[in-house]
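job 3f2a | input accepted
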Amino acid sequence: MRIRKVFLSFIFLLFCSSMAYDVRSEGPQAKSSEISAVEVRDNNGRTEIKISSDAPFTYNLFKVSDPYQVVVELQNTGLGEFRDKITFDRAGVSEIIPIIDESSANSSKLKIAFTVPVDVEPSYKDKTLILAFMNPERETGNAAAGTDETPRVSQPGENKLFGSKEYVGEKINIDFQDAELSHVFRLIADISGYNFVVSPDVKGKFSMKLLDVPWDQALDVILRNYGLSKTMEGNIIRIAPTSVIAKEEEEIAQAKESQEKSGDLITRIYSVNYANVEDIKKSIETAKILTKRGFISADTRTSSVIIKDVEKMHTEYEHLIKSLDIPTPQVSIDARIVEVNSNYSKELGIQWGALVKPTPQTIIGGTTLPGKNGFFSGNPLLVNLPAAVSQGSGGSIGIGYIGAGVLRALDIQLSALEAAGKGKIISNPRVMTMDHQKAKILQGKKIPYETFSQDGTQTAFVDAAIELTVTPHITPEGTILMNIETKKNEADFSQRSFNGVPTININEVTTQVLIVDGDTLALAGIYKTTSSRDTSGVPGLSKIFGLGWLFKTEKDVDDSTELMVFITPRIVK
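job 3f2a | predicted structure (573 res):
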């Protein structure tokens, strides 16, 4: 009976304690913290993102593959009122987006988007998380207002770890610790799409972390780091130690050399149709494709190349000779040479004479020195400065008077000449030449002159002509590059040497131009103008104002010459 009471008492106490525990568990729980403020500000050139809470909290900072974003996780902290996207667009911060994750009810996440990739430095103090980085807007402003030095931007393909090779593979992230090399190569094979064959000699552990690196660059880094090399055959990549591959290549070279030494020498004659046989021979020798036992010679009479070498090399020689022995393209050059001459001359002259006999013993008039007499009275002239008029050019007018009393006579004759002329000389020579070969057009005269030496007197000739020299080159894209030299050498008979040979006036133009097939190039600029004014008169009297024209003659001459050359090259097809 006592045992039953003790048992019942134990059951009652256990029930009461259970009720007390249930009451405590149903009481008010500790309240979790919430985000109270989010702000972005600039602090002396550094951007600070402040995330504050109403209670202490812990955090995790995640750097995702996108360099423009980071994710912050606040543990035991709710989003509170910050459940919508916040747009800042200043100080390098674009926006802050809350991430609602139902599986993590006691934590909140914020995704922060930046305007440029930044390196974030987190710090926590007094219930506030601060994410700091250099303000890109402030850096841009300082660069613009600072020195004139422009920061150099690295171009694609520069600063490679092993030279200037351009890597084009898909970018990957690798983070291994003590992994087998074969497993790493298998991963790269899956990503690249190539078939990898790894030598059994490749062994070792791999520990490396690479982020955002092309797979082909990562492969080169791994191979060099572990003393390995690769060979490619189609879509198969074979990986082996560098020493093994070097030894294999050496053995292949030795086998090839042994085969060349053991093969029979065969002599073949190759006919050359278009190219120069000496040039073909030189090209083969320069290419260094002859074996050590090979020999080559050229026969210019039959335009043939003779090669003596092992049989398998003749296929390569035949292909090379066919590639070099092709017709040289030709260019037809159509030239139009236009020489325009214009001249103008004006001449005004006067002749007059007078005779007065105040007494039978006194005569005042012209002298009997050689000269023309007056057309009316026949008396000698005082002023004889006529214009060069003649039949078919110019004209003259005269006035005469003879007095009846005291013998008096007066003759005045005015002469004038004005001439203008224009001339055009056109020549249209055509010439055809081969690529890289000079073509020359010469048109004019040869002027003889005498030379004196120990061998006696000899006659030589100098060119006084228009000379056009063109050297064309056909570019791979079908245009024509021309070296042009134009000369116009003409004799100047107004200036002669001691033995009467005229001097030669030289005009030259040298240029290089690129022109489309069939277009016309105009060369001008060889232009010559001669202006002269001649005055003849009686000294002193010809300068009398108003009356000086009675004692002088004037002649004005204007001559101009222009040479224009039009060149039209055409590729002969």
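job 3f2a | The helical segments are 2-25, 136-145, 181-192, 215-225, 242-262, 277-287, 311-324.
job 3f2a | closed
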